[in-house]
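Recap from last week: sequence in, structure out.
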Amino acid sequence: MEMVIPALIGLAGVVMGSVLQQRALARSARDADLAAHRQTVRDTIVRLAYALSVHRGHLYTRWDLAHSPTATPEQAAQAQETSHASRGETTRALYQLRALTQDSVLRPPPTPRSP
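Predicted structure tokens:
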């Protein structure tokens, strides 16, 4: 009987160590996943900011050509196409950011359904 109690205490220690190690590994994996997700969100925010900057530049060029008496219709059409393309990149980056986050500020309000 004297040998059983120390053996049970030793067994309990091994089991507790194993459980604590599994919890620590799970926490480490969760932390790594969270860090990777945060980096992806940061990268997407940078892409969105860059796309917005480029798009605003294209809009300014388009506005400038629209108010220039020497601009040709071909130049105006090219500026319109360029600004539309950059708007698409901006929208894509925004949708990607919305898909990556649960932040209610970035999500549009739900549309009411008609009966």
